[in-house]
């Protein structure tokens, strides 16, 4: 397996990444798992993600509008509200499935929701990977 360990976690970049994510979800037993997507990743990436996860895990998708213009505090407030309304708590996980807007905004939202929840970035663009 190709992986790079950092101070803040491990980066997986091969065919076994979904296996490692499934294992992580089993081990951590999060109270809820949310997936942050935009209009594009909801259509093109989310179905593939769900299929690769094997249908064994319950995810709640939170969708925002796509585009750099939506990387703002108003969108953060929408995601915080969605997490609250769907009973997100300190033991929840936010999976950020998308490009730079999703991974940047999702990381910020996760780190500030209820004093911080765990998050996983699944980048779908080269820019989101750096």
Task: Count up the helices.
Answer: 6
Uncertain ranges: none
Class from secondary-structure proportions:
alpha/beta
Number of strands: 6
The CATH class is Alpha Beta
How much strand? 15-25%
Q: What does the average pLDDT come to? A: 93
Query: Topology as H/E string?
Result: EEHEHHEHEHEH
Query: What CATH architecture do you see?
Result: 3-Layer(aba) Sandwich
- Calculate the terminal CA-CA distance, rounded to whole Å: 20 Å
Side-by-side strand order of the widest sheet: 4-3-5-6
Total of domains: 1
Share in helix: 40-55%
What does the largest sheet look like? 4 strands, parallel
Overall geometry comes to globular
The CATH topology annotation reads as Rossmann fold
**Radius of gyration from CA coordinates:** 14 Å
Describe it.
This protein is 43% helix and 25% strand. It has helices at 17-28, 39-44, 46-53, 73-85, 100-112, 126-129; strands spanning 3-6, 9-12, 33-38, 59-64, 93-98, 118-123. The strands form 2 sheets. The chain has a 4-stranded parallel beta sheet. It has a two-stranded antiparallel ribbon with strand order 1-2. Helix 4 (73-85) packs across helix 5 (100-112). It starts with a strand and ends with a helix.
SSE map:
Blueprint: E1 3-6, E2 9-12, H1 17-28, E3 33-38, H2 39-44, H3 46-53, E4 59-64, H4 73-85, E5 93-98, H5 100-112, E6 118-123, H6 126-129
Parallel strand pairs: 3-4, 3-5, 5-6
Antiparallel strand pairs: 1-2
């Amino acid at each position: 397996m190709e992986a790079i360990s950092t101070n803040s976690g491990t980066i997986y970049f091969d065919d076994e990444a979904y296996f490692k994510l499934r294992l992580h979800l089993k081990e951590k037993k999060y109270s809820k798992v949310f997936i942050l997507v935009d209009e594009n990743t909801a259509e093109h990436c989310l179905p593939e993600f769900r299929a690769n996860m094997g249908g064994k895990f319950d995810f709640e998708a939170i969708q925002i509008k796509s585009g750099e213009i939506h990387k703002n505090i108003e969108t953060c407030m929408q995601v915080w509200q969605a997490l609250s309304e769907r009973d997100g708590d300190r033991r929840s996980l936010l999976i950020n499935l998308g490009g730079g807007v999703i991974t940047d905004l999702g990381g910020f939202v996760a780190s500030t929701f209820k004093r911080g929840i765990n998050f996983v970035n699944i980048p779908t663009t080269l820019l989101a990977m750096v």
